[in-house]
Amino acid sequence: MQIKFLKSIVETLVNKQAAPIIDLLVDKKNVNEFLIAKKLKLTINQTRNILYKLSDYGLVSFIRKKDKRKGWYIYFWTLNTFQSLKLLEENLKKELGGFEIQLKNRTEKRYYVCNTCSIEINEETALLNSYICPECEEVYQLSENKSVVNELEKNISKIKKELDLVENERKIEGEKIEKKKVIKIKSAEKKVKADRKKNREIRAKSAKKEFRLSNKIKKPSKSQKILKIFKKLKKNKNKNKSISKSKSISKNKNKNKR
Q: Which residues on neighbouring strands pair with residue 113, listed in sequence order?
């Protein structure tokens, strides 16, 4: 049913020849334009013209890649199903509005017809022409509205049914898009959390490394320890010598006094 609706909008916007393009793009991503041209039995320029028209309405999108061997760009196309159904819905609503206006006019106003010229006009125009056809000078006859009203009512009923189906299909596509968005958001949030955790671990490792390096710098080596002990012993030795010398001088002074 969805494919039927999508083909309908393509026929409306481009032509009937372009409708089979939907079969090639529906439920697929990034389809090679040369493959599309081959399947449609059209030239690449004809195919591109169709795709560009659809792209102007936002019904298809593309990415392009450079052919490394030939050096030119190749376009890959994807169908925007949601936008296509939305546009079809808008067109159906306009068409429905037009039929409803016609039905109102047919039920509230009178129309006249020239049977010779097969021309139908409204009452205002018939009055201006004194109810005589200016082409053949035949008298206008009151037009039978019943068959026209029945046809309009059938068209209105048909469009309303199609509109309900299209709205339902569009809602389904909208829900799919929202689910994909939620999945992308959750995936992005998960990635952010993983990145934050990784950064914390890196910072923790870096801090630990810096702490070790600082401790290693502060902690004296064996040679430094030995040198420190040697300096301490030397200092004590010099101190003892100084004390001994002081005592010796003191003894000599005492002897001299005696």
A: 120, 141
- The domain tally of the chain equals 2
Q: What CATH number is associated with residue 45?
A: 1.10.10.10
Residue 256 in tokens? 């001299």
Domain of 31, in residue numbers = 2-79
Residue 112 lies in a domain: yes
Cα 57 to chain centroid distance, Å, stands at 16
Distance CA 210, CA 236 (A): 38
pLDDT in tens, the chain (258 residues): 678 888 888 888 888 888 899 999 988 899 999 999 999 899 999 999 999 999 998 899 999 998 888 788 889 999 998 988 899 899 999 999 999 999 999 888 899 999 899 899 989 999 999 999 998 989 999 988 888 899 999 999 999 999 999 899 889 888 888 888 888 888 888 888 888 888 888 888 887 777 777 665 555 555 666 666 766 776 666 666 666 656 565 555 555 555
Q: Are residue 55 and residue 110 in the same domain, yes or no? A: no
Any domain includes 230: no
Name the domain boundary from 44, 79, 114. Answer: 79
Alpha helices in the chain (DSSP H): 2-13, 21-25, 33-40, 44-56, 81-108, 123-128, 146-218, 222-257
Of 16, 180, 6, the C-alpha closest to 82 is 6
79, 60 in Cβ contact below 8 A? yes
What is the C-alpha separation between 85 and 163, in angstroms, rounded? 10
Same domain, 92 and 163: yes
